[in-house]
């Protein structure tokens, strides 16, 4: 979100339905599915300036292998495409629900992102053992459905400890072109962050959403209405039916001036940015420290990774705690939310 992505697919959200309902996602619409029990969960976040809706995909209760959320995005000129965020719990299985996911929209442009916990030489050329039957079936199903692997073969997407390295986070596309795909170390997870640019076949790049318009918030319940009316009436010119346009402008100007002066109000500019320079620097230091540790693990580097990661988390928690600290209803009339 801080980097301005238009679409974000997340696996392992580890959020309950209640936590998801209360989440503040700023300029994004959140489509999420929580896991029954601990852990898990998948989500897709889409900028509010892009039209999106969730496509229901019912998974039977006995199918505990697959978690998925499917979202349809509408573009201009009656174009749309599907984004799915999926997670397969180990050991992975190719279930009927998974087959329905791949085959339910055969004519649609599709982007499928997920943690599949699957190993195969096509995306892990360094794999020394033969792929499992499940992995072979998984790849065959993808090929039959017309899905193309976006990952750079051999590019690590998951690293844990000193030896565990794999490419289990996969990106698949159909009737879409993906460029600039990359995997970068994240201080927040053992999984890498995958980023890319999305195109639609034979068409222009999918347009980025314009920035959201600034919003203002007012507490009508604490407005001093008597002063509001007096101020409003004092600014209105005498009515002249021959100058209706001028009268409408004067009315609007008087209304805005009155409620700004006599209602507790929020900011008239965009919300404060979550990712300030200090936080961005701390994240960069933590990321670089972790990347060095993964490249050549030593006790000193592991300690440095833990230290920089803790510093980043401390700054992040403090930023989240202070961003929405004050509420409009607690302000006095005419006082802005700082």
TrEMBL record:
List the keywords (alphabetical): Endonuclease, Hydrolase, Nuclease, Nucleotidyltransferase, RNA-directed DNA polymerase, Transferase
Signal peptide segment: none
Does this UniProt record's set of keywords contain Nucleus?
no
UniProt keyword Cytoplasm present: no
Residue runs in coiled coils: none
Give residue ranges for domain Endonuclease/exonuclease/phosphatase.
93-193
Pfam families given for it? Exo_endo_phos_2
Gene Ontology MF term list: endonuclease activity; RNA-directed DNA polymerase activity
Protein known as: Putative Endonuclease-reverse transcriptase
Can you name the source organism? Trypanosoma cruzi
